Amino acid sequence: VGRNMAALYEGYTLCGLVPTQNPPESGIQGIELDRDDDRVLVTDSTRSVTVYKVSDQKPLGSWTVKQGQFISCPAVYNSQTKEYVAVTNDNVIRVWKTEDVNIDQAFKATVSAEIYRVHSVPDCEPVVLFRRGGVRYLDSLLTAPQQPIEEVLLEDEVIRWSTTVRTEQQLLVLFSSEQRGKHFLYVQRFSPNTLVKHQLEAGPHLSAPLSYAATFREEHIHLLYWFPNGSVYESVLPARHPAPAAAEEVQALPRSLLLQLPIGEGELRSASALPLDEAHVAVVGVSHPSAGTGKDYLCLWNTHFQTLQASRELAGKIYGQVWCYYGKLFVTHGKTLSVIPFECQKSSLAAALGKLKQTRTNESKGPALVPSWNTLPHGDKPGKSRGVTTRRTKLSSKHQITTIEQLTCTIQQGPVEEVEQKVEMFLIGAEQAEQQLAVGRLVCELVARCRAEPSFYPRVSLLQLADTRYLCHSVCPGLLTLALEKKDFRLCQVCLQLFPDIPEAITCACLKVILGIPDAELECVALEPDSLHLMKALTQGPVPSNDDGGEHNGFCPAPLEEDGGGSTAPDAKVTPAPLDTSDRGTKPCKDLPAIYMDCPVGLHKGALLNEVLQTAYSDSLLLPYLKDLTVTQVILFLQYLQFLYLKYSQDVLPQIQALRMPAVTQIMEWVCLLLDAHFTVLVLAPEAKHLLSGLHKFVKSQVKLFSELGKIEGSLQVLKNSKQSHQTGQYSIEVVELF
User: Fold this and answer.
1) Is the pLDDT confidence value at 515 over 60?
2) Residue 110: Cβ-neighbour burial (10 angstroms; 0-12, 13-18, 19+)
3) Residues 257, 306: Cα–Cα separation, whole Å
4) CA angle (574, 577, 581) in 5-degree steps
5) Above 60 in pLDDT, residue 307?
6) Nearest to residue 223, comparing CAs of 149, 162, 305, 284?
7) Spatial separation of the C-alpha atoms in residues 28 and 25, rounded to whole Å
8) Distance of alpha carbon 64 from alpha carbon 515, whole angstroms
């Protein structure tokens, strides 16, 4: 019978943390899913709520309460009203929208009792759980904020954990409590409104559970709770309504041992277990069975077979926090919030045991490298059986491991020609799964030898391994830096295209090298043809103007002389004069000298700059590194960005066929970042005067354009809403009065 197996893939950093020392905490209260599967809502332990886009690790919005106030529980997203909800100072509910800048000016309501948690429910309004056990829907609570809230818990009873479970027919609120060493589970049902109290079984040497988790499957609620001795228990209770008599008394909640984790000596302090499916549990804060003490891991365990499926060592202190959304695990450790994708596959018991053996073998011979999260395995190829391990498959696996080890020895000792030949043979003959496991290790070995021996540089092998798409910067952090040192710009281009997790410092290092190298030196580099095709299309020269002096998309800059700029300087091609757009439409495009549309950089340099523009980054992390650019480099880059934007404003852009090209928003974001980082220096630099003046006039003209469009918005709306006459023949005239 098949069972699920799990695999971890290469992770990346979503944001930094500001941990607290006393008590030691991560600084994050919770992570909630936002409006789609690529946005999460992160609430810190003090006063801030931030929305992050997971795919590019970029903050999309942040809100902070005033000094002296604090956020009591994680903020949530209300999918019904498209609003955010948070609780401040235990009893003040705040509701705001994405466009609201100041959270203090948003809607707020003070309730009559302290709130423990607000839970978001997909396609349903949030549920509010009070500290004394009362439960209300958010909408009904905001209708009468001062309504009395019942006290469910006893005087010395406190809530330790809560969640919501949505079944096929109803919504349930679950929360655990503790009273004098005893632990209880409450199940609140709606329609009809019933509350059932269960008591968890007590053990002779069991203290309070470290973590709880609940899932719904097969018409039952499965509760997982983990004790400091490494025992993970499961309790199953029906999701249907209990009998009326049973609902009034405390019911015993039987349990079964689901998983016994090896923890070594002592007990766990900061750890958590989270179910991924019916057969797998993600565990954080426990050492790997074969690793030494003092190391913390994120592990995926198979509860059916009691086997370890995958593991990842986590640097820094573990806080026992893990969340799971849409195939991604969010883990806090050290000063980092990491996102680690995972995937479950079908496998047999023999394969599960073999997976554990292979994991230990890899860890004993070197660092365990997992495939990049860019390329996840897509299942087995047709015709291959995974249920039976034969002697032939064992011999084949042994031969593959030996081949990889032999290739590693060749990389460490062989000449460049032999290394390139062996790597090419390996990539041709190896299967996809084997390549995913080996490519990262091979690149690390190649980079290490290149560092030790400057004369050794197998460029062909590095390009071939990068083109497999199984790499990212976290797997081989020295590859892109090595390519910059060797001025291997083709490899740089491949890394910029394929690596989604390039640090901002490396991005700026690439930008600085690209801007500083002469165009003539780049002309001999064989870059990707598609990127050069885009640059050729952009630099074919100025677009011919219409004979009647028409404009391109309503944009036609006037000559520089119209604004007192004087005649064109002889070196204008090196430093293009800015474009004056304040008199849009007053001059025909044929009056614009062709020199104004010249590209300030060569084709190859422009292609590389386009790759930098499309890399993912965080504004706050990128700004400090941008200040390392020289004034000459900043001016050149701004001129190129201005050139791109002007080309994008023309009708010729949709005719360009390119697989990768920077978006208009990316261009404008980089312009803003450069101005923020170097504005004072640019204002004082004489050579930047014309450029800043041109940018200012361009923005001014855009504001004027949008102002004029706003004036006719009402008229356009009337045209849109006007009902067309149905009694029209082949020719008709309709008069529309606009007010």
Assistant:
1) yes
2) exposed
3) 11
4) 150
5) yes
6) 162
7) 8
8) 38
What is the β-pairing status of strands 194-200 and 182-189? Answer: antiparallel
CA distances from 173 to 121, 477, 517 (A): 11, 45, 62
3-state SS of 552-571 is ECCECCECHHHHCCCCCCCC
Give the helix/strand (H/E) hosting 49: strand 48-53
Kindly state the tokens that stand for 435: 């390549």
Residue 48 DSSP label: E
Residue 75 phi/psi, 5-degree rounding, is: -70, 155
How far is 436 from 351, CA to CA, in rounded Å? Answer: 18
Given a cut of 80, whether residue 257 has pLDDT beyond it is yes
Which pair of structure tokens corresponds to residue 210? 């470290």
Q: What would the pLDDT profile of 10-26 be if each residue is shown by its tens digit?
A: 889 999 888 877 677 88
* Residue reference for tokens 């235990």: 90
| CB neighbour list of residue 144: distance below 8 Å, 6 or more residues apart | none
Q: Which two tokens stand for residue 138?
A: 């958010």
CA 196 → CA 136, 167, 186, 191, 438, distances in Å? 16, 17, 6, 14, 53
Q: Tell me the C-alpha to C-alpha distance, in Å, between residue 317 and each of 264, 289, 351.
A: 18, 19, 33
**Are residues 255 and 233 in contact, defined by beta-carbon separation less than 8 angstroms?**
yes
Q: How far is it, in rounded angstroms, from Cα 237 to Cα 217?
A: 11
pLDDT of residue 737: 66
Shortest CA distance to 504 belongs to which of 10, 106, 58? 58
What b/e string do you get for 230-247 counting C-beta neighbours within 10 Å, with b at 16 or more?
A: bbbbbbebebeebeeeeb
> pLDDT tens for residues 72-113?
999 999 998 999 999 999 999 999 999 888 888 889 999 999
Percent of the chain residues topping a pLDDT of 90: 36
Among residues 11, 64, 61, the alpha carbon closest in space to that of 39 is found at: 61
CA angle 130, 119, 183 (to 5 degrees): 55
Helices within 389-528 (DSSP H only): 391-413, 416-429, 432-452, 459-466, 479-485, 489-498, 504-516, 519-522
Q: Which residue has the tokens 């976290």?
A: 474
Angle at 440 between CA 468 and CA 420, to 5 degrees: 65
Model confidence pLDDT, tens digit, residues 609-665: 999 999 988 888 888 899 999 999 999 999 999 888 888 877 555 556 656 788 888
For residue 119, list its beta bridge partners. 127
* 318 dihedral zone (left: phi>0; alpha: psi -120 to 50; beta): beta
Residue among 685, 650, 665, 595 nearest 693 (CA): 685
Structure tokens at 209: 């559970």
Quick one: DSSP state of residue 598? Answer: -
Of 360, 354, 361, the closest CA to residue 389 belongs to: 354
Per the model's pLDDT, the better-predicted residue between 2 and 97 turns out to be 97
C-alpha dihedral sign at 423, 428, 433, 436: positive
- Residue 58: enclosing H or E segment and its boundaries? strand 58-64
Helix axes 391-413, 416-429, angle to 10 degrees: 160
Residues 6+ apart with CB under 8 A from 301: 259, 261, 280, 281, 283, 307, 308, 309
- The residue type found at 460 is V
Residue position matching structure tokens 């849409």: 326
Mean confidence (pLDDT) of the chain: 79
d(CA 154, CA 179): 8
Q: Sheet containing 107-110: which strands, arranged edge to edge?
A: 71-78, 83-88, 92-96, 107-110
Bridge partners of residue 137, in order along the sequence: 127
First to last CA, the chain: 74
The position carrying tokens 């590693």 is 408
